Amino acid sequence: MSVTKYEKDxxxxxxxxxxxxGRKDQRVRVQKRVNGLTxxxxxxxxxxxxxxxxxxxxxxxxxxxxxxxDVIDRWELQQKTYPSKHYVDTTIIDHVAxxxxxxxxxxxxxxxxxxRGDGREIDRMAEDxxxxxxxxxxxxxxxxxxxxxGIEERLITGVHNSPVFGLxxxxxxxxxxxxxxxxxxxxTLLRKAKEQxxxxxxxxxxxxxxGCRSGELHQLRKSDVEVISREQGxxxxxxxxxxxxxxxxxxxxxxxxxxxxxxxxxxxxxRTVPVSSEFYWFLMNELRFEQVKADDFLLPRFRxxxxxxQATILRKFCIGNNLRSIRFxxxxxxxxxxxxxxxxxxxxxxxxCGWKDLKTMQRYIRLxxxxxxxxxxxLHFIPTEEAVxxxxxxxxxxxxKD
Length: 402
Hints:
By secondary structure, this protein is mainly alpha-helical. It is built from 17 helices and eight strands. Strands 1-2-3 form a three-stranded antiparallel beta sheet, covered by helices on one side. Strands 4-5-8 form a three-stranded antiparallel beta sheet. The termini are far apart. The mean pLDDT is about 85.
């Protein structure tokens, strides 16, 4: 607050300037300036009037809660200050970016004033942009998460539900089938990569035999892998298949292209992946595992990989060799589907792959067709040759009756 005098055209005037911030939230700010007052007395009276007026405005804004953009900022700060197992850094970044992009018309509005009509407007905007039902549902779910948090933290007052609570988002009936390769296609891909001495061959091998995500493979070090000696490996080969043990690797860290840094796995926890006999042979004979230094990276390093170009490299290779074009992440899906097809319980596959959500797992179970296998064997409708012959009248018997 200030009352100052100034000179203009040889005359003395007075100016009043008021700048108020909220008591609950310092980001709530109102300002006003009045010029041209002819006396100090008039200026002091105007100062008191403005102070009352702006104080009421600040109180009104604070009673309504924060703007939607401020709520998003507070949620982001809360998640980064007090990390939880639900949100790793990249997930937080994705949620905030999603909100800033798709709820931009809300950012400067008081969050408590948003209603169901505003929610439908955001959904229509995404639909008009050609976004899928699944993507629009993701927008809705993220709004619900952040808005509910704002209510619980008393940042949004006077309401009990988000503006998209209960909003129906239509999802396409036809679900896209995930990219997947058959066993033979996997073998062909790896065989061609080896024949051409492709530099990414070791990475693709590791992806298929461990089911690790790209960022997790990027950060694997020799110290994360425990395998038996060569001599023990020969002994294990002589044992029955289900008793063989070649070692395991622990997936602890992941490289994030977005933040250009190393962080935890997507699930936020480390996990163990068994080493199979084939992968053990690959480690020993092709990666020269015993010659790798203790803390060195297990797999080759590529500039494209650091920048997130692993999918582009794989697609180019597939197209150049007349193979089905796939994403890098598809190799992880192939790993899961092959394990399920081999009869490994879904709960075990979930642990190895680091999935928390059974819904994700169900997609791969459906792809493998395990639950449906043998279900139709009880149907016997096609006439057999024996059944047909029973209905054929013997010509000899027919003549005998005559």
